[in-house]
Task: structure prediction
Amino acid sequence: MKNDKFRLIIMAILTVMVLAVAALYAFEVIGEKETNLGAIIIPVIVVLFMVFFIRKRYKDVKEGMPMEDERSKKVLMQASAASFQFSLYWLLAVSLFEPFFARVLFDVQKLDASQTVGGGIAGMAIFFFIFWLYYDKKGKLI
Amino acid sequence: MKNRIKEFRAKYDLTQEDLARKVGVRRETIIYLEQNKYNPSLNLAHDIAKALKTTIDELFDFRD
Result:
């Protein structure tokens, strides 16, 4: 139980750090023409997920329940596996349709490396969040 | 896999939270188990059976 509280505190600190870095970056680049949106979107997704996750787990720990059990570990494992599989297709799509993403999302002819990688990682984060929600609520766990 | 956790829990007047605490899992896990939406590991099935003073065979229906 003490270990669970410690883990929650570490998670909260990490979330605040990610948020702080994203905020600093946002203040720096807002208004610039070629803003790397991925560098702002990814931390925002991570922070939203972490806030949701920490709130849920904090409630359990407060009520004297364990933060993790065999089911939550399985949910995490299956969501990770599924999001990894989907992110391979996503990364393939990002590289194949890069000119399309460049035009639609950034209004430029070509994406630079950091924008492509950022888009790929943002997709992975979104997939993980969706699969985690799916397996936690509805999915058939193996 | 069907189970009779809810029935046995009611027999011993235990809430889902009480049972979750006894076997060291989250309350959600007990909810999903009772709804037959989650198949527990052998260890967890054993712990639940022990907490409900019964056997795994009595508690779980393996025919499905």
The two ends of chain B are 6 Å apart (CA to CA). The longest helix of chain B spans residues 42-51. Chain B has one domain: 2-61.
